Amino acid sequence: MTFWRTETMRERIPAEQLIAPYREEHVTRSAYELCQGSEAFITSTENKVKIELAAGKSLVIPPGQFALLLTEERINVPMNAIAFISMRFGVKRRGLINVSGFHVDPGFEGRLKFSVYNAGSSDITITQGDRVFLIWYANLDDNTTDGYPSAGPDQDKISSDDQNVMHGEIASPAELRSQIEVLRREVDSKTENLKHLGMNIKLVLTVFLSLVVAILLRLFFMSYFAAPSSSDIEQLRIDVIKEMRKELLELEENSRATSESQTEEQDNVLDRRPDQPNNEGDAVDNVDVAPNRQNSVNSSSTTD
């Protein structure tokens, strides 16, 4: 298998009408640069219909979405050759990936449909006429009879079957992350609300139980302890007053007795002053005088 060089492509493509419309300036580095055509389909399209691209009109492929892109040029692959296809690096580095295949069978005729996926994190914009795709030709060792079956009219456009296969919005990793973040915030908000609700329920239950206990205690005391009548209260007041009066009288008598006792003791102290000898002193003097008299009598007897 030999790949065609630039000179071979510039010679054979226009001579054999392998690419139409052909532009010689699109042949570069042994490849031909194909352009975005007039039709496209994106899985995130609101009405789920293909996009018609007029000259200079653009399409936007959101992150995580598939698209079906139709080339502007019609391709013809000889029966003694095979073609390989890809996308230009300037588009691929933004995250656009070709997922439709990488070769074109011998005998194929028609426009190419590229199925692509935006694996990047931002929108990718493509304008009608942009050089987006690449094609290389390579020789087979001989002509083959096992070529691509005859293509129908749907090969030059994006058909309804093509759209049905790609129907539905595809959730990209970025979109899934965004949805997860939204769900996380909702869960956090609901969890916080449940916490507040739980605190309110506890408060209500506490108040309710307190009221129930108070009512039960009131009923208990009302059942077992009858309230005193006004006459009982008055009699109790009279008894208390009597007891208080009695205590006051006893206190007054004790105070009077104590005062009299103190007065009597003071009088006794005054009676015992030194200038008025007491009876005990007189008795002592009498005792002392008697022995003296006896001694005098004895002395007189001896003298006689």
Automatic annotation (TrEMBL):
It is an enzyme of class 3 (hydrolase). The chain crosses the membrane at residues 203-227. Keywords: Hydrolase, Membrane, Nucleotide metabolism, Transmembrane, Transmembrane helix. Residues 292-304 have a biased composition (Polar residues). Residues 252-304 are annotated as: Disordered. Pfam families: DCD. Signal peptide: none annotated. One of its GO terms (biological process) is dUTP biosynthetic process. PANTHER family: DCTP DEAMINASE (PTHR42680). This is Deoxycytidine triphosphate deaminase.
